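If it is no trouble, can you show me the amino acids of a protein and the tokens describing how it folds?
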Amino acid sequence: MPNSGGERLPSLGYEFAREAEARAHATELDRSFTREEIVGLRVYRVRWNGSYIVEATFADDISQERIRDARALLGESGGPVHPDDLIDYKRASESGGLSGWMRRFFGG
């Protein structure tokens, strides 16, 4: 997610085998960080392997210590997603695939 200067904000992505696990960790992040620290929090479903990704986007002035805290929380049962892979997945999920009622019908 770009900030007002066009630079990318710090972001983490972690992959989980089950949706409930991903949502529980996203909820825990939401409880553990302020709105000023985490400016975006999403759960993505990875269609081709059935897993789920939690993406947390941080404010540009967040400390490295707080990012380490988020990594520790997400890493309890999730696996880190390389930043390039996260960008590729988001690009594929936003630009391709089915549209309209078909996406809703297939759970998109």
